[in-house]
Structures are given as structure tokens and as C-alpha cells.
Amino acid sequence: QTVPEELQNGGGFGYVVAFRPLGTVSWMQTVVASADAARYVFRNESLPPFSPYEVKVGVYNNKGEGSFSPVTVVYSAEEEPTRAPTTVLARSLSASDVEVSWAPPWENQHKGRIQGYEVRCWRHDEKEENAKRIRTVGNQTSTRVSNLRGNALYHLAVRAYNTAGTGPSSAAVNVTTKKPRECWQGSWQTSPHQVFVQICQAQHFLFNFFSVRFFPVLYRWNRQSSTSVIETNRTSVELSLPFEEDYIIEIKPFSDGGDGSSSEQIRIPKISNAYARGSGSSSCSACTLSALSTIMISLTARSSL
């Protein structure tokens, strides 16, 4: 930082820059004969990257030399990292998130400080140059990659970076995101002697519809806590239900990815009107009424004995 004119105390003001490699005894000095100068560049082609130097700056004018600043340590310019991170691992957390972790390069494998890491993630059917990039800061060695497609194969690679640039990439690792949870909505309609319940899969999850292995159908009287379950791998099931009781029905698909999310409880009131209809929405916010895949469950009602 330059010295204000009112503190220069005379003409011929300038600076004396003294520096030496850290750990050595002898100082090298140079004179910067300008009161407005705010920097000095020492050039040496043999200087190793990221070399530490002790530096102090003094002042002088026509009357003589003044005092020096306190000694500080500065570094020559660094090179980008020369080695890649190691032990890169990735695991799927959900249908849209994966976690990737790695080990840093060895200390003697780079010529500068690592300021962070860049994680690249691209889907198997995408080009690597279009990869999603996430940068960490400091010595963090894991991060989460979000907003991915469910049930999709991804490749991930990690590289270190500093002020000079980005180093070489690690070998890519593969991870497949989890299958999305099944997402359902339902509606019901009665006609004489029958109750039809239509369960719709939301459009967003259409591609996963065919992975469903079976549908547990849960039903109970509205006034009872115990639940009956029927499992079917078909798109319809027939239940014998008392005609004059309120019923609660849920559908919960099961696939290789595990249990899906249940439909919201569908309440079918006792049938006092031969023709009635109603609906129940899924608890999944992605569900819409514009579902493209449906299954119909026919529930045959009969009089209570």
C-alpha cells in the first residue's frame, strides 16, 4: 500500500523491496523509484511453482532510508493440480439425488494449494462435455448431486482446482438412481350393485408403471381400525363388501424398487344413492388429473347379512 504524500517527508521518495526464499539468511533488495508504485514483479525462470518467500518493504527519500514493514510470506504462482483425486465412490440416495466422495491427491503430487474440487455428472445417454458441474470449496471431500432423473445410469468424475486452473480428472464411476416412488390418485363411482374404483398413475411417473409387480389393496370399515389386505398382480380385483357401510380403500403398489407411496385414503360412503361418485387424491404433489395410465378395481357390493 502506497504511502500518502503528507507522510513522505521529502522529495525523491521511493520504496525498497527486500525478499528471500523462506528459510534462507541473505536478503535480495531492489529499489522502486516511484512514490506511486504499488507492486514489484521478480522474474526468474528457474523459480519453482508455489515457492514461499519472505518479503518486507521499506521506504526512502532524499534524506535517507526509513523503516521496513513487518515480514510477510508470499508465494510464487502455482500450477494447476497435476494428479487426480483417488478412491472416488458414488451411491444413490433417492430417485433424484446421489452422493459422491473421494480422497485428495497426495501432498507431493501437486504444485500448489488445492482450493476445492469439481464434480462432473452426466447421464449415460448424454455427452460428457454437457455434464452437470458442482464445485466444492476447501478440503470438503464429498458432495450431493441433485435434480437427476430416476432409475437412470449416471457417470461421475472428480478433479481438483486452484487459482491456476483445474487438474486431471479421476476415472469415472457409475451409479444408478433409485426408482421413483409410485404415485397414485383415485376416484370412485357407484351404479346399482357395483362400486368402481379407478386408480391413476401420475403422468410424471408413467415410465415406471410397468415395473409394478403387484398391488396390495387395503380396505376397512370406516368405524374400525383393523385393515384387510388383498394382493393382486392383475389390474382388477373383486371384493365382497357390505352394501350399507362406509369403507376406506387404499392402493399401494410394490415393485423391485420396494413399496411405492399409497394413494390417499379413498372413502366410499354407504350407498344410500344408487348412483354416486367421488375421488381421492394422492399425497404425492406430482400427481395430476391428466394421468395417462389407469387400472380399474371392481368392488362388488352386496347387502349386509
From TrEMBL:
Gene3D superfamilies: Immunoglobulins. Keywords: Cell adhesion, Cell membrane, Disulfide bond, Glycoprotein, Lipoprotein, Membrane, Repeat, Signal. It holds the Pfam family fn3. One of its GO terms (molecular function) is cell-cell adhesion mediator activity. GO terms for cellular component: axon; plasma membrane. It comes from the Eukaryota. This is CNTN4 protein. GO terms for biological process: axon guidance; brain development.
